[in-house]
């Protein structure tokens, strides 16, 4: 996802193009910064804690103290940040609160294959389950406390009302257990049993 690509749609509107000229805004990136600044000013005036996608931070928008950055990309145009772990470290150590989503994009699909070295299938649940957000964290205990948790995300380019629930569940249950459990609760074989039961529960009661 690139900001330039997203904002290009705005530039198809001649009124927006003229407004940019009138206000000496010469690029889509500057337009994005302006938009983010206006939203942050609104949240500041009504005493609401803002949550921003990491793109806003990439664009060097001045963020008010207490802002929560949601890390969703695994890489960036910014050479300083090449993995989600790098973002997590930098943001928390610079004093921002962080929510992690990068490793838990439920709309990504891959086909499982049997792992002959283990008794579990190498399926997406286990890819999601085995992520440990703080494994590569380097920083003070104070900075660690600023990592609020994570969120499973599902984008809608190939999702609608016919497949929303089946695409999200039961994979999201693996993310939920990972985030609600201490780091030492990480046995995939034990989790497989619990997640299978939960899948049956969803099928029986929720008609997913």
| Rg | 20 Å
Q: Strand order, biggest sheet?
A: 1-2-3-6
* Class from secondary-structure proportions: alpha/beta
What's the story with the biggest beta sheet? Answer: 4 strands, parallel
Name its key features.
single chain; 208 residues; alpha/beta; four-stranded parallel sheet; two-stranded antiparallel sheet; 10 helices; 9% strand
Give the gist of this structure.
This is beta-N-acetylhexosaminidase. The protein contains ten helices and six strands; from the N terminus they run H-H-H-E-H-E-H-E-E-E-H-H-E-H-H-H.
Can you offer a commentary on this structure?
Strand 1, helix 4 and strand 2 form a beta-alpha-beta unit. The protein has a four-stranded parallel β-sheet with strand order 1-2-3-6. A two-stranded antiparallel ribbon has the order 4-5. The chain is of the alpha/beta class and 208 residues long. The longest helix is centred in the last third of the chain and has 19 residues. About 4% of the residues have low confidence. It contains ten helices and six strands; from the N terminus they run αααβαβαβββααβααα.
Secondary structure elements and pairings:
Elements: H1 3-8, H2 14-22, H3 28-45, E1 51-53, H4 54-58, E2 68-71, H5 84-93, E3 97-100, E4 113-114, E5 121-122, H6 124-129, H7 141-145, E6 147-150, H8 164-168, H9 171-180, H10 188-206
Parallel strand pairs: 1-2, 2-3, 3-6
Antiparallel strand pairs: 4-5
EC number: 3.2.1.52
Enzyme class: hydrolase
GO biological process, one term: carbohydrate metabolic process
């Amino acid at each position: 996802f690139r900001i330039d690509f997203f904002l290009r749609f705005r530039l198809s509107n001649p009124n927006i193009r003229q407004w940019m000229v009138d206000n000496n805004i010469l690029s889509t990136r500057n337009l994005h910064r302006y938009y983010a600044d206006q939203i942050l000013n609104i949240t500041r005036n009504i005493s609401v804690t803002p949550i921003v996608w990491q793109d806003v931070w990439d664009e060097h928008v001045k963020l008010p103290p207490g802002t929560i950055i949601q890390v969703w990309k695994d890489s960036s145009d910014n050479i300083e940040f090449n993995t989600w772990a790098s973002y997590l470290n930098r943001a928390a150590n610079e004093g921002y609160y962080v929510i992690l989503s990068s490793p838990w994009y439920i709309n990504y699909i891959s086909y499982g294959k049997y792992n002959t070295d283990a008794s579990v299938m190498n399926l997406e649940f286990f890819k999601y389950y085995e992520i440990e957000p703080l494994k590569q964290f380097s920083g003070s205990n104070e900075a660690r406390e600023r990592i609020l948790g994570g969120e499973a995300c599902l984008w809608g380019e190939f999702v609608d009302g016919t497949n929303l629930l089946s695409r999200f569940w039961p994979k999201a249950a693996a993310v939920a257990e990972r985030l609600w459990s201490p780091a030492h609760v990480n046995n995939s074989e034990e989790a497989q049993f619990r997640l299978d039961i939960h899948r049956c529960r969803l099928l029986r009661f929720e008609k997913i």
